[in-house]
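User: quick one
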Amino acid sequence: GAVVSQHPSRVICKSGTSVKIECRSLDFQATTMFWYRQFPKQSLMLMATSNEGSKATYEQGVEKDKFLINHASLTLSTLTVTSAHPEDSSFYICSALSGTSGRMVFGPGTRLTVL
Amino acid sequence: QQQVKQSPQSLIVQKGGISIINCAYENTAFDYFPWYQQFPGKGPALLIAIRPDVSEKKEGRFTISFNKSAKQFSLHIMDSQPGDSATYFCAASPRMFSGGYNKLIFGAGTRLAVHP
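Assistant: Done. Structure below.
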């Protein structure tokens, strides 16, 4: 139990386009979801925290107009990278917090490559 | 500002040996300390976690040692196997459960290689 999926697993896009990444909690309701970015051989850096039905809280230095986060339901959060540039190429990972167990579960990640 | 310092950056251990990874923190409000294992191209997976009310927690070959006064905690992997080769992250959080849950702060990671 307690599985989080991400879609797509890999995406390649052209510079200037927008890309949407989905994060789903498959068998539990997630009161809070988190989005991380991980560059090669580096740690996970928290980008934002999203709560269902409310605006996301962004970490310092993360552009909220560039990284749009929507947490429309207790099982789905989306991250949209708008006007993507090559420097946005990274591994994006979401995590979901179960409201009942308090357990934090990470998704498998999405590899974004911007050409 | 790095709130959780992790060392070493990389570690090579022979099969059957003990792998030891150390972390230190500054924020005394942290009260949840998990360790995650990450394989290349995959998301991190929870290995083991500890709260500061205990000094040690063991699950199979994995043990966390916690020193509250020194604000340090470590992961010990006993009888290390080649399949343990991965990147390990320590993390810390002020609170574990929702309704006030705060973010996980990750260490820089340790790349472990277990040689046969």
